[in-house]
Amino acid sequence: MKRKAVVLLSGGLDSAVTLFFARSSGYDCSALAVDYGQRHRVELESAAKIAGAAGASLKVMKLGIDWGGSSLLDKNSRIPLGRSANRIRRGGIPSTYVPGRNTVFLSVAASFAEAIGAGDIFIGAHTEDSSGYPDCRPGYLKAFGEVIRSGTKAGLEGRLRLRSPLVGLDKSGIIKLGHRLGVPFKDTWSCYSGGRAPCGKCDSCVLRAKGFAGAGLADPSLGKTKKAQGYA
Amino acid sequence: MKRKAVVLLSGGLDSAVTLFFARSSGYDCSALAVDYGQRHRVELESAAKIAGAAGASLKVMKLGIDWGGSSLLDKNSRIPLGRSANRIRRGGIPSTYVPGRNTVFLSVAASFAEAIGAGDIFIGAHTEDSSGYPDCRPGYLKAFGEVIRSGTKAGLEGRLRLRSPLVGLDKSGIIKLGHRLGVPFKDTWSCYSGGRAPCGKCDSCVLRAKGFAGAGLADPSLGKTKKAQGYA
User: Fold this and answer.
1) Under 8 Å between Cβ of B37 and B13
2) pLDDT tens track for A148-190
3) Cα dist. B73→A49, A111, A112, B101, B206 in Å?
4) Does position A129 have pLDDT exceeding 90, yes or no?
5) Which of A49, A112, A185, B5 is least surrounded by CB atoms within 10 angstroms?
């Protein structure tokens, strides 16, 4: 019998690669997506497609985070455009930072994993994001691993651990890995702006374009619309 | 201006004492309760009364934890009766243990605290519960403190910390403290069984009765119904 894993799946590129990585490592994967009122809820449709392509079950958990604190939640706030300007504006942490987001996601994943008897939790946090979001950094992930080890029954018994296989990779490295694993990039969603086509200008779109360029690959999600074509 | 704090409030005795403790320490308190499908949802009514008595705002967050894994969530499962039998049955961890519950609650509290600019998060975890629930133990609370310090913007900037003032107290000590602080014990709810009156037999009812007896105080929540009268 295959070992069970819970994989946090946002519908974005990183979590899709993580899911395919876990599958290729021989896990029976349960993907977990969170509907937390993100303006780019279209990513949840991507999550469904990606889980389907990976042969994983998908659970979408609704979470009433309605206290704002992030441009990613507030439809009246502007998503910052361009990566560097954005970083400077917020002293290194983008305004799209959602307070405690990965902590909430990992907590829910730990609860879910323990309830279904999964032994591993996978998250697609990585180096390039971690320069902006504190809850993607290796030190943070280590601290959360300790929360799982000390604060869950399964963790105390050595049956539950946290894995972040992308943590040392940059976007190009992640895209190359995903390419080898057959990730359907066309179905992944990165844009933060909340439209039906990628804006090509937000932090996440810019990083994605840079990643594909660095990997020497074309982004198959482009060319869907006129607007998107201008974005690579 | 008073410093802001987020206080996790279940409607039970421990979190009520914690809220009154935070208030007496001079904080402007925002209480946070979580509706996670617990069978004893009546505790949320208690949370509203207690927050009102403490002059705190109350936010109830709905959380779709529907994956079970605990007798506290599953209406078809039996809540274990009597403290010791229960502990033996599950190798030291009661079946009422909800996978990762405090981790989920603390995550949500950290996100909420950061969004509203609170500098402290209070949780009523303590020694006697920690003998049964891993996510009440001091080592766990320390690990979660590190998650807040490393994984939130406010934590990184030294503006957010976790406090568990009851951690070294037993139930009698907590009740004595609450008595001094004027906690309206009659409005607190401890029973896990999901009825409209305390069952007097579940783990939580037994521990409460023992605590009042040890403190040499009468439990003002008793005597409401005939059934409850038999429970001290």
Assistant:
1) no
2) 999 888 999 999 999 999 999 999 999 999 999 999 999 998 8
3) 31, 13, 13, 11, 20
4) no
5) A49
Buried b (16+ CB within 10 A) or exposed e, A204-216: bbbbbbbbbeebe
Q: Determine the structural domain holding residue A184 and report its residue range.
A: 4-229
Q: By percentage, how much of chain A surpasses pLDDT 90?
A: 54
Q: d(Cα B173, Cα B201) in Å, to the nearest integer? A: 22
Q: How far apart are the first and last CA of chain A?
A: 43
Residue A87 has pLDDT above 50, yes or no: no
Q: Whole-angstrom Cα distance, residue A158 to residue A160?
A: 6
What values do phi and psi take at B95, rounded to 5?
A: -70, -15
Query: What is the C-alpha to C-alpha distance for residues A20 and A93, in angstroms, rounded to an integer?
Result: 29
At residue B195, the pLDDT reads: 79
Tell me how many domains chain B contains: 1
How many Å apart are CA A39 and CA A87, to the nearest integer? 20
Instruction: Indicate the residue type of B205.
Output: C
- Is A67–B107 a contact, with Cβ atoms under 8 angstroms apart? no
State whether A112 and B67 contact (CB < 8 Å): yes
Give the closest of A102, A104, A151 to B134, CB-based: A151
Asked if B191 contacts B202 with a C-beta cutoff of 8 angstroms, the reply is yes
Q: Which residue has the tokens 């949802």?
A: B41
Centre a 10 Å sphere on the Cβ of residue B202 and count the other Cβ atoms it contains.
28
| Tokens read off for A157 | 């018994």
Burial class of residue B49 in the structure, from the number of CB atoms within 10 Å of its CB (0-12 exposed, 13-18 middle, 19+ buried): middle
Task: State the smallest CA–CA distance between residue B70 and chain A in angstroms.
Answer: 8
Q: Is the pTM of this model over 0.90?
A: no
